[in-house]
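FAQ: What does the model actually see?

It sees only this:
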Amino acid sequence: MSDALAPPPQPIKSEGEILHMTEVFLIALCLFREARSQGADGMQLVYDVISNRAADPRPDWPNSRMAVVLQPAQFSCFNFKDGQSAIFPQPKTTAEW
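And it is asked to produce this:
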């Protein structure tokens, strides 16, 4: 089976689209770093924590998923002193993206 190239990316149309793409990237990176050894179930649990915190009306949590992920001392993978903060996925094929 050949590793076909992905179609070229489409031009970005708005700042909102950039913000959305950034949020998706940061959440995916958080899921990978926090639960990569736990498979899809572990990643789903981390995603549920992120979503629940963003939906929580109390002032303890930010109201966006991106802000929850980046909130200091919440996810170790975004703490600069944590070794995970420098780990990125290394896909072997484009299909793994």
